[in-house]
Please model this.
Amino acid sequence: MPIDPDKLVALAFPDTEQSYSEKDVMLYALGVGLGHDPLDRRELAFVYEKNLKVLPTFPVVLGFDPFLLRDYDTGVDYSLTVHGEEHLTQHKLPAASGTIVARHRIRDVIDKGAGKGALLLMERAITDKTTGEPIATIRQTVFCRSDGGFGHVRPSPLVHPIPERAPDHVCDLVTRPEMALIYRLSADTNPLHADPDVAKAAGFPRPILQGLGTFGVAGHALLRIMCDYDPSRLRSMSGRFSAPVFPGETIRTEMWRDGDIISYRARVVERDVIAVNHGRVEVN
Model:
């Protein structure tokens, strides 16, 4: 059954309510590599309950459901879908514990053409249950590799250009060998990130790091270099996933600053491949 874009955009999803604790905040930070140096007090502030800080990328795991669409008759072949892009807009840093409500919708469906796939543009609005205040808006692009050719072909959304000059800053962060196993305790329990047999069946020599785990590592680098570990200064962050990372590899985040806008990309040092490209961050 081909994709019906009007049906997809009209889907009404139930709200997701999620309560989280300081433990969840610290576990997420550990899952993206903070605390690697337990004597670094700047990192310790995100993994220790004394005056605990919340990472600005923490909202990506709030209300997150990687299998949200699988209970609906949409025509999408989920076995051939890939998380293509992530866009995080921070409205207010979440508290170190609380309850949120996430409202999901499909903003648009783009046909790339027969044999070229389709894009689902999804949105998750996260609010504080008690106050109703907006916390963050998450926009994800899901690439449906086998589902193109259902209607009028339109161009993909424009990507943020990376400057041609040399990076203004570079930050290398080593990922832990068990990072994917830690990160999946916060979100994304896909066995591709844990089970060697599933990874092999998918064409990988071993389990890969979650894309949002890589996103969080790059976010840590940006927080360190551009925000001096002040999470309130990172207002938005986006990027396109372009290659997998294997836990244990080094992620080099290359950064270019132009006023309040930071361009970035994340490179796997050992294999010299770009894992996150066309990255854009707004700071204050």
